[in-house]
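thread: overnight batch results

M.L. [08:02]
morning all. the overnight job finished for the chain we discussed friday. pasting input first so we're all looking at the same thing
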Amino acid sequence: MRADQRFQMKLRCLGMLAVFVFLLAGCSRESAPGDVTTEPSRVSAPEKYNILRQRLAPFFEPMGKPEPGEWLRTHSEPGQSFEQYINSEPTLPTDARRTIYIRPLGKFRADERKIIGETAEFMTAFFGLPIKVLGERDFAWPLALENYRIHDTEGTRQIRTGYVLYELLEPELPADAAALIAFTSEDLYPDDSMNFVFGQASLEKRVGVWSLSRLRDKNPLRFIERTLKVGIHETGHMFSLQHCTKYYCVMSGSNQIIERDGQPLDACPECTAKICWMTDLDPVERFRRLSAVARLAGLKEEAEQFEKKRRAVLAN
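M.L. [08:03]
and the structure it wrote out:
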C-alpha cells in the first residue's frame, strides 16, 4: 500500500473510531508456553534468507506508531523475528503431515462456495503445501448454551471459537494434516471479554477457524481479498507465526475490518522468510505461482506486485 493510501486509511480509521471503539476483536490466537522468544538466538539465519529479506524490504512499509483504534494501540506485542521463529521450536509440516485441510462449516451461498475454492488455490501457492477441501458440515442445532450467544448490541448469533476448535475440529484432525481450518459463515467470538473475532487458531493443536460474517462486501474482489487475508493469517498462526509488528503485513493483528483492509495480501520479509524456511520453498517459484492465482481471482494489482517481487528476488 502506498504512503498516501496508508494516510487516507488512518484518517478513515480515526473518523470511524467513535463507531468501533467498543470493538475488541480482529483475530485471536491461543497463547502457549514459549509464545514469545526473548532468549538470544541459538541458530543464525542462513545467508539466503538474509538476502531474501533485503530484496523484499522495499516492497513493505515499516510499522508506524499505532493510531487510536488500531490493534497495537490496545495490544502490547513484541513481534517475532525470523531468527526468533526458527529458534522457537515452531509447529511445522512434516513428511507425514503436509496437507492443509479446509472444512466448510455451516450454510453457504453460491458466491461463498466459489470463494472457498479460490482460497484453496491461493493458500496452496502461499504456503507451498497441498490443500484439500472437505465436505460441507453444518452445526448440529440446537447447540448447548455455552457454545453460542446472541450479541448484546447487534442482536446477531455468534459461535464460540473454542467449541469449533476443540469439540468439532480437533477430534477429526486427519493423520496427514499439517493443519485443519474451518471456514464458516457464522459470526465468531472467543469469550465474553470480546465482541467478535475474524478468526482464531491454536499455536499448538494445528486447528483454526475463520469467518466470512464480517468480511462480506458489495465489491466481490474486496470480499475475496479479505477472505484470503484472514485465512492466510489464521493458518500462519497454526505454524507458530505470531503477529508481525515490524511491517504492515498479512500477519499483523487487526481490531476491525478497516485495519485489515489496509494490510497487504502478502507476508512481509520476515514472515516470508519463515514460510519459505518451514517448507523449504523456492521464493521465486512461490511468487510466480502467487501472481498466477491472484490474476485468476481477478486481483490484478496484487498479481503485478507478486511479479515485481519475483523479479526482485531473482535478481543477481
